[in-house]
Amino acid sequence: MGNIVELTQIRKSYGEGTPVVTEVLHGINLAISEGEFAALTGPSGSGKSTLLNIIGLLEQASSGQLHINGQDASGMIEAKLTALRGRTIGFIFQFHHLLPGFSALENVMMPSIIDSGWPTTQAQDDAMRLLTQVGLKDAAHKRPSQLSGGMQQRVAIARALALSPRLILADEPTGNLDTHSANDIFELLENINREQQSACLIVTHDPALAARCQRRIQIVDGQLI
Fold first, then answer.
1. Where are the alpha helices (DSSP H) in the chain?
2. Which class does domain 35-60+87-224 fall in?
3. What is the rounded distance in angstroms from the CA atom of residue 33 to the CA atom of residue 10?
4. Of 72, 83, 138, 162, most Cβ neighbours within 10 A?
C-alpha cells in the first residue's frame, strides 16, 4: 500500500521579508499511508493546524517537498492546487461552516456543484445516499438551524465525502460537541475509514480519542516527536 501523503523537510515561517521572522514548523518528515487512521496531537501553538493546512493545500510551506496522492504539490500553480485539493481531500472542521440558507441536502451537494458547475441529478442522488449513510436521511430538507450540533457535524462529514476523497482531514471535529455526540462522530469516521479506505488524519486534544486511532503523531514546538 502506497502513501497518500509524503512530507520531506517541510518548514513554515511567518513574517518572511520582515524584521521578525517566526519559523513554526522545523523540517517535518511525515508519511501517511492509504487507508490509515491517524491522530495528530500536541499542545496549543505546537503547529498542528499549520501542518494540517499545509497537507490540505490551504497554505504553502516555506521550503521542503509535499506529495499528495503521488503528485508533487510543491510550487504547483493555484489552479492545479485547487483541482488536486477538491478531488483528493475532504475537510471537516470543529465549526462545520454549513451554509445557513441551504438545506442539509443542498449543503452536501455543494462540492459537486462547484466541481461540475451546476446541480445534477447524480449529485442529488449521491448527497441523499451520503446523508443516509450518516443517519440523516429524514433531515435532508432541514436547514442547519433546525439541526443539533452533532447532526450539523454529520452533515459536514457527508459534505466532505461528496467527491469520494482519498484523504480526510479533520481539525478538532468533536471539539464543539458533548461526549456522547463526540463518540458518535468518531465512530462514524472509523466506519468511513474502514468501509471506504479513505485515509483519515484527525487533530484532537482528546487523549481518549487519539488512543483509538491506529497511529498517534505528536508535534511539539514545530517538530514531530
1. 48-55, 78-88, 104-116, 121-133, 149-160, 179-196, 207-211
2. alpha beta
3. 18
4. 162
